[in-house]
């Protein structure tokens, strides 16, 4: 399965029980750093940059796909607002849209803080 396909299908795999919650848990910057260190170590052991480069590609694809989610403050949220404006035929009040994006950013920052603490309390390990 392609990397993009796996990133798209991961939520469905989680819901159907194909993968466990621990395997699909979201990680923050601390968890990404922990995993990156493990992949660098694996790359050194096999004398090839392939494991780390695949990890970097997976992170890039996952971030790109996440950015397209229709959540305010992300690009997908902006796309959603543009679609709403197209359907309505008139632009949304900039102050209202700004407030919605502010709420989205606060939500995302809060989620980031929770993920950082979760990564510190329960470090991520490769299977």
Beta-sheet strand percentage?
under 5%
Kindly state the percentage of residues in helix. Answer: over 70%
User: Please, what is the average pLDDT?
Assistant: 90
* Uncertain spans: none
Order of helices and strands: HHHHH
The number of helical segments is 5
Describe the structure.
The protein has 127 residues and is mainly alpha-helical. It has one domain. Helix content is 72%, strand content 0%. The protein has helices at 3-16, 29-46, 50-67, 75-88, 94-121. Helix 1 (3-16) crosses helix 3 (50-67) and helix 2 runs antiparallel to helix 3. The two termini are 19 Å apart. The mean pLDDT is 90.
Question: Which key phrases capture this entry?
Answer:
single chain, about 130 residues, mainly alpha, 5 helices, about 0% strand
Short description:
With 127 residues, the chain is an all-alpha fold.
Write the layout of secondary structure elements.
Blueprint: H1 3-16, H2 29-46, H3 50-67, H4 75-88, H5 94-121
């Amino acid at each position: 399965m392609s990397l993009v396909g796996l990133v798209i299908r991961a939520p469905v795999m989680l819901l159907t029980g194909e993968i466990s919650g621990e395997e699909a848990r979201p990680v923050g910057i601390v968890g990404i750093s922990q995993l990156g260190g493990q992949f660098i170590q694996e790359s050194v052991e096999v004398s090839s940059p392939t494991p780390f480069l695949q990890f970097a590609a997976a992170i890039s694809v996952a971030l790109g796909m996440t950015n397209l989610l229709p959540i305010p403050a992300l690009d997908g949220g902006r796309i959603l607002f543009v679609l709403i404006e197209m359907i309505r035929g008139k632009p949304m009040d900039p102050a209202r849209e700004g407030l919605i994006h502010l709420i989205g950013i606060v939500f995302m920052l809060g989620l980031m803080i929770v993920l950082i603490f979760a990564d510190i309390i329960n470090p991520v390990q490769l299977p």
